[in-house]
């Protein structure tokens, strides 16, 4: 059996000068737990500015939990989480709220506020956290919805649109405050291949256009191979990361049998699940 | 090339500023300063900025935060290129402005040359529709119908809803008859859960409210009846009021708020999770699986709670009467027993059964027709409580008329 104590690393997780930029988001020896139940431990990762970082792993391994800890919804049991060199959890609530304005989050089902139209969903953060007048807010709302191709749906309620539209509307809302770090939780889940490919294009365009850093939680291998240029692979059994690297690197060069099986969509011989 | 004419407004280096410089091959839109949309209201750009000013010597000073000058010239602009070399920082606010410019160019028949723009700006502009004007309001709602149309629509909807509740009542009745042949489709565990929720769990609040109502009735009655040395009739007052009206109505109001709201919220949440759709696909009748346990549990528990409410209400009256008036426990008990006949008891029992069926049916119906969002769950619960309470009081008025006509 392969030793899981040291993850299979295809690059240095704390490299600073490689790729598009230096690290913007860093985790060092982080453990995530709900009470006594440990979800993941010994997480070391570094997300470089302007990169698309993938969080990969099988169902139930803690990918979404890791994402929650990155956006401040779950405090790690131990370890440090740094944002541009600043310890995220060292500050008070007010400071964390300020830091959260750098985040834009696309939740798995869009998480749109159901009592508001799409336009109002995008407008709310602008009304709450900027001093813009209503005309400027309308202009920005129109732009954000137009960027995701939903300008015509500005007056629709979330219950009146499809799942794919809901995700794009969630993305428009995530872009409301022009965040420099975007988090996507399963953006392609439940979408048809064409819609999924369009969403990938949109993510790449937003990364290149806005210069945003993107963290993406997904199982969708074609999407990951296409857009992600770095990543981490979490293991549900050992409850720790077992590989670092881009999805393509993990597919082509990783020797861990589970990672290899996952990235090549094969059955792992040691896995007894049906 | 003509030099841009500076505007009259003093501008700091960070202020977003635009100007159009005209040359032989076309015009150049020059931007400078910080174009950060979330920091300041950025200037808007319309087709008038190109056409109205293009052939005149005018300087334009646009909306707050920006300054636009158009240099004097004679020929109309054929092509517009953008120069962003003076822009120190930007976000999507710049993209919004350039989108305006591109649409203004389209409207004015001027070619917008995006090639000189930096690649990220080009990519974002490439995502935006060519000829779509931004909508005029994020909160723009669909037009509301006229006043009379709303009243008419509301009345028709009310009739339709009454019919739907009647149909649901019929289906539930048929399902309850199938219980005898054990083919109702209702699970015993669901009935027991609903029964526990509507019965034992409600004892405390029903008891407290009825005790206080009985005590208040006795207090008010005692103050008045004492003046006529008729304090003993406090027992009659509390007894008749509890048995005939207060116990049934107050218990029903409590159950409408407590249990009816919970049923509506539960069923509307199931609606949102597509659980109702799943039941329908399997062919499991909603009336048997969801509505029957809810209605049956209320129809069974309401008369029991009514009796309990009567006793506790009379106890409340007794406590106040004994402490305020010079009457004995036996006297109070005797006066209570002779105050009302069995007909009034039966009347109260029938009312409580009807109230229970009404609350169960309406709350389930409201949950079933609710929308699928989180907000809709709240709306359904509120509506179930309001309709439950108003409906119980309206039904009680109908019962009062019936009681009067049959001489109870």
Automatic annotation (TrEMBL), chain A:
Residues 1-24 are annotated as: Disordered. Pfam families: ABC_tran. The keyword Transcription regulation does not apply. GO terms for molecular function: ATP binding; ATP hydrolysis activity. Residues 25-261 form the ABC transporter domain. InterPro entries: AAA+_ATPase (IPR003593), ABC_transporter-like_ATP-bd (IPR003439), ABC_transporter-like_CS (IPR017871), P-loop_NTPase (IPR027417). Keywords: ATP-binding, Nucleotide-binding, Transport. SMART domains: AAA (SM00382). This is Polyamine ABC transporter ATP-binding protein. It comes from Swaminathania salitolerans.
Automatic annotation (TrEMBL), chain B:
The chain crosses the membrane at residues 151-170, 191-220, 232-257, 278-300, 306-333, 345-368, 380-403. Residues 48-72 are annotated as: Disordered. Keywords: Membrane, Transmembrane, Transmembrane helix. GO terms for molecular function: phospholipid transporter activity. GO terms for cellular component: ATP-binding cassette (ABC) transporter complex. InterPro entries: Permease_MalE. The keyword Membrane applies. This is ABC transporter permease. It comes from Swaminathania salitolerans.
């Amino acid at each position: 059996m392969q030793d899981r104590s040291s993850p299979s690393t295809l690059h240095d997780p704390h490299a600073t000068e490689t790729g598009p930029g230096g690290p913007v988001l860093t985790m060092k020896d982080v453990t995530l737990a709900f009470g006594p139940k440990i979800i993941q431990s010994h997480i070391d990762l570094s997300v470089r500015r302007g990169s698309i970082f993938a969080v990969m792993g099988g169902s139930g391994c803690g990918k979404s939990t890791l994402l929650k800890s990155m956006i401040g919804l779950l405090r790690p049991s131990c370890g440090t989480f740094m944002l541009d060199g600043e310890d995220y959890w060292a500050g008070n609530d007010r400071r964390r709220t300020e830091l959260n304005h750098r985040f834009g989050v696309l939740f798995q089902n869009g998480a749109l506020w159901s009592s508001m139209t799409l336009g109002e969903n995008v407008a709310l953060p602008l009304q709450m956290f900027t001093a813009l007048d209503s005309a400027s807010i309308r202009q920005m709302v129109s732009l954000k919805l137009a960027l995701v191709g939903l300008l015509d749906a500005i007056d629709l309620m979330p219950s009146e649109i499809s799942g794919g539209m809901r995700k794009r509307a969630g993305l428009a809302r995530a872009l409301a405050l022009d965040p420099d770090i975007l988090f996507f939780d399963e953006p392609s889940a439940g979408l048809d291949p064409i819609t999924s490919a369009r969403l990938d294009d949109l993510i790449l365009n937003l990364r290149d256009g806005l210069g945003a850093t993107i963290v993406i939680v997904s199982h969708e291998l074609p999407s990951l191979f296409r857009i992600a240029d770095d990543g981490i692979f979490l293991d549900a059994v050992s409850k720790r990361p077992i590989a670092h690297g881009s999805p393509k690197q993990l597919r082509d060069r990783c020797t861990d049998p589970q990672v290899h099986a996952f990235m090549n969509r094969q059955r792992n011989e040691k896995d007894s699940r049906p | 090339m003509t030099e841009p004419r500076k505007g009259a407004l003093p501008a700091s280096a960070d202020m977003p500023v635009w100007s159009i410089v005209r040359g032989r091959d076309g015009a150049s839109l020059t931007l400078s300063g910080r174009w950060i949309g979330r920091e300041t209201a950025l200037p808007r750009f319309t087709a008038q900025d190109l056409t109205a000013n293009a052939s005149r010597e005018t300087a334009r000073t646009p909306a707050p935060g920006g300054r636009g000058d158009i240099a004097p010239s004679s020929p109309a602009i054929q092509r517009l290129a953008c120069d962003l070399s003076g822009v120190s920082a930007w976000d999507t606010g710049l993209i919004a402005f350039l989108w305006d410019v591109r649409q203004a160019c389209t409207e004015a028949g001027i070619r917008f040359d995006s090639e000189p723009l930096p690649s990220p700006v080009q990519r974002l502009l490439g995502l935006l529709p060519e000829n779509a004007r931004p909508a005029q309001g994020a909160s723009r709602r669909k037009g509301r119908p006229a006043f009379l149309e709303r009243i008419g629509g509301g009345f028709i909807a009310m009739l339709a809803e009454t019919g739907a509740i009647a149909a649901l009542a019929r289906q539930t009745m048929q399902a309850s008859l199938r219980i005898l042949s054990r083919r109702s489709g209702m699970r015993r565990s669901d009935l027991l859960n609903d029964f526990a929720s509507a019965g034992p769990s409600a004892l405390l609040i029903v008891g407290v409210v009825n005790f206080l109502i009985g005590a208040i009735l006795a207090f008010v009655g005692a103050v008045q009846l004492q003046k006529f040395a008729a304090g003993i009739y406090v027992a009659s007052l509390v007894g008749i009021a509890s048995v005939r009206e207060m116990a049934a109505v107050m218990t029903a109001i409590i159950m409408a708020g407590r249990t009816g709201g919970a049923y509506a919220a539960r069923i509307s949440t199931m609606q949102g999770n597509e659980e109702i759709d799943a039941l329908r696909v399997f062919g499991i009748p909603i009336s048997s699986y969801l509505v029957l346990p809810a209605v049956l549990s209320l129809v069974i528990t309401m008369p029991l709670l009514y009796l309990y409410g009567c006793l506790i209400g009379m106890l409340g009256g007794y406590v106040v009467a004994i402490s305020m008036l010079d009457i004995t426990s036996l006297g109070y008990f005797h006066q209570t027993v002779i105050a009302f006949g069995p007909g009034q008891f039966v009347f109260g029992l029938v009312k409580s059964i009807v109230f229970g069926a009404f609350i169960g049916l309406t709350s389930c119906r409201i949950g079933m027709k609710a929308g699928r969002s989180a907000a809709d769950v709240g709306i359904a619960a509120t509506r179930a409580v309001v309709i439950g309470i108003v409906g119980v009081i309206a039904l009680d008025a109908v019962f009062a008329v019936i009681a009067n006509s049959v001489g109870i």
